[in-house]
Amino acid sequence: MYLRRRRPVPIEYNHAMWSCPAPPPRANPAGIRAKLAPPARWLAGFALLAFTAGAALAATPGLGFSRSVTPGLVQRYAAKFGPNVRARISGWQEFVRSAAPAPASADNLPLLGAVNTFFNRVPFVTDQAHWGVEDYWASPAEAVSSNGADCEDFSIAKYFALKELGVPIQRLRITYVKAVRLNQAHMVLAYYPEPNAVPLILDNLEDQVRPASERADLIPVYSFNDEDLLIVRQGQAGASAGSSLQIRLWRALLQKLEEELRY
Ligand SMILES: [Ca+2]
Question: Does the residue 245 lie in any domain?
Fold first, then answer.
């Protein structure tokens, strides 16, 4: 039995000992496979979406969007990451511009595949090698500009791209998982076509977007979006743990996205 908490839990989700698994060489083309029955642990518990403490900070229009990148930000990141930044940012903007906007229906499968494949082209680089720190959550503009990302950076970039393309955030959950075969912490983006449906998984480890029911290698631990934070307890999902702002690195990311708008 899972008690619904009335107030955000006073905890911080830090990621000591965090590391993302490196993806294998990609041999399979991107593709989408049919839905199967949802494993209970992946159910998102949409009825529990009650906490909106983070909404004010996350409500700035265009936060993290490709179209929000200012000339000043491009200049700043070009100075930091090199002259290829302009082409990389342009490529990202062009991809979002040319992608078909999300239809009103829940059938966004081609779009999910396109977004997953597009960002998976960014080379995988560990945070230690790329940023000199154990754990760094890059903004989409940083990941694209610096041409390097690890699992949470991929998930973040895909989340904001789908949001920019009109996908309701209630369908999107950045999900911290345990990659059991690799015995490593990992992060993916889960897309829920409907409340409590089996989610489709956008993963930098593979280009193919597959339902969670086919991803027995991933065990969800907690998930979040702009609205809330849900944790999985004893193999069952849906226990709301409050605001995603309790995740220190998510909070820092949102502040960084606000700062990026000001350049
Ligand atoms: Ca990172």
Answer: yes
Give domain status of residue 141, yes or no. yes
Q: Residue 31, Cβ neighbours under 10 Å: how many?
A: 12
From the CA of 52, how far away is ligand 1's center (Å)? 25
Q: What distance in angstroms lies between residue 3's CA and the mean position of ligand 1's atoms?
A: 33
> Cα of 149 to ligand 1 centre, how many Å?
6
* Tens-digit pLDDT string for the chain (263 aa): 333 444 443 344 445 445 788 887 764 443 334 445 557 777 765 434 333 334 444 467 899 999 999 999 999 999 999 999 999 999 999 999 999 777 666 768 889 999 999 999 999 999 999 999 999 999 999 999 999 999 999 999 999 999 999 999 999 999 999 999 989 999 999 999 988 889 999 999 999 999 999 999 999 998 999 888 888 765 555 656 677 877 889 999 999 999 999 99
Q: Please name every residue paired with 149 in a beta bridge, in sequence order, or none if there are none.
A: 124
Spacing, Cα 137 to ligand 1 middle (Å)? 4
Residue of 201, 258, 251, 198 lying closest to 229 (CA atoms)? 251
Q: Quote the ligand 1 centre to 153 CA distance (angstroms).
A: 5
pTM, two decimal places? 0.83
Number of structural domains found in the chain: 1
Q: State which residues form the domain around 221.
A: 40-260
CATH classification of the domain holding 125: 3.10.620.30
Residue 26, domain member (yes or no): no
Among candidate residues 208, 181, 177, the one with its CA nearest the CA of residue 41: 177
Strand runs labelled E in the chain:
172-179, 184-191, 200-203, 206-211, 218-224, 229-233, 236-242
13 in a domain, yes or no? no
